[in-house]
Here is the input.
Amino acid sequence: MVKALITTESYGLKPDLSGKVRDIFDLGDRLLIVATDRISAYDVILPDPIPGKGIILTQMTLGWYDLFSDSLRTHFITSDPNDFPPPFKGREEFVGRSMLVIKAERFDVECVVRGYLAGSGWKDYKKTGSVCGIPLRDKLQESSMLDQPIFTPATKAESGHDENISFEEMCRIVSAEDAETLKKMSLRIYAKARDYAGERGIILADTKFEFGRHSGEIILIDELLSPDSSRFWPKDLYEPGRPQVSFDKQFVRDYLDEIKWNRKPPAPELSPGVIENTMKRYREACSRLFPDMQLEKFL
Here is the structure.
């Protein structure tokens, strides 16, 4: 198993921004993004890493970038450390888990698309019969497939919890024209990814995207359709009316709920079994979606 990367500072490199998972270096008109093996739950970074997780996230994102290459512009430049500028050039610890990207002007909203009723959407529906102000039909169950996918934006929080907002509220954060464009782009990406995953035995229940503007054009930034940003369910085990077996970090959330953590720092340690099984789920999602991807050369 690959050695866990918790922070790039352990290699004498201080990032300009350290998020829940990624360390980001600002290179002027470009960014270098390194996906560590940190894992968060309920917007709190957990003390134990999932060794190799950052590699899985990066490789899945690159797989999706390639699938959408003819229809979607992204911020991606290269993932080969030999093409990175100094002092990052050729660094072995970055192989498989890093990418050099265009620096764009980020839209400060999370673009969430839901095809199924789960998570905060399910909680909202139980209280109001709606999700982010979008009314849904009566008598839906937990994990029900929606009649059609819905766009449910959220605030983009630097720390703490992202908050679901209505489309009207989104239009107060970005222009109405940009909000409409982001909505259409998000629904289009989700539909293509849903169909692709479905053909490979996986339900894409929901996902979130981030976008930015570069040279006047809206482009996709950050990760794409990874187990950290999406709910993936095995199609053969799907049964509405209950929580689903999941290929994403829901396994970690369930463990934390089971031990009755209050969702506030400090987070509890993860058991070795939870760490191992979480990594297995990430790997299985990747291998089902991209069976020709050679993860072994990185892991």
